[in-house]
Amino acid sequence: MPRVTFRSPLQEVSAEVAPGTNLLEAADACGAQVGHSCGGACACSTCHVWIRKGLESLSEQDDMEMDRLDLAYDVKPFSRLACQSKVADADVDVQITEESLKAYMDEDPATRKALEAEGKWPPRKFT
Ligand code: FES
Question: Which of 10, 101, 103, 112 lies 20 to 30 Å (CA to CA) from residue 94?
Fold first, then answer.
């Protein structure tokens, strides 16, 4: 099974997932801090991630995802929406964007407060 690894200034976590799993589901499987304000309905851009390895192996980007990514911050040629990107057989390395990490912390204030108390939030650098 392919391994999906998520990196941010706060964590590096990974999970082996079945082909066909989307990256947001993979994030949930390993506790990766990927924002998901709309719950995976392709109605926000808070699950915006950068694919550092395995981009070509992901499911094709459709028009809806492209339109939604137009609303995202700091979009790169290797940007994808985690909830719309399904893995195939290859391993995938994902960098959680600043936009997505901030959204996650807004969605989970208890985690943000705990990290603030430890002096870990906000990080000095996001990438
Ligand atoms: S969670 Fe909203 S577009 Fe992916």
Answer: 112
Choose one of 25, 34, 37 to mutate for the ligand 1 pocket test, by most ligand atoms within 8 angstroms of C-beta: 37
Chain mean pLDDT for the chain: 97
> Crossing angle, helix 98-107 and helix 109-117, to 10 degrees?
100
- Domain limits for position 48: 3-117
- Residue 125 falls within a domain, yes or no? no
Q: Is the pTM of this model over 0.90?
A: yes
Residue 42 C-alpha to ligand 1 middle, in angstroms? 4
Query: Does some domain include residue 110?
Result: yes
Residue 127 has pLDDT above 90, yes or no: no
Return the ligand 1 atom nearest residue 40 CA.
Answer: 1
Closest CA to ligand 1's atom 3:
42
Q: Where does residue 18 rank: exposed (0-12), middle (13-18), buried (19+ CB within 10 A)?
A: exposed
- Please tell me if the CB atom of residue 83 comes closer than 6 angstroms to any atom of ligand 1: yes
Residues 122 and 6: beta-carbon distance below 8 Å: no
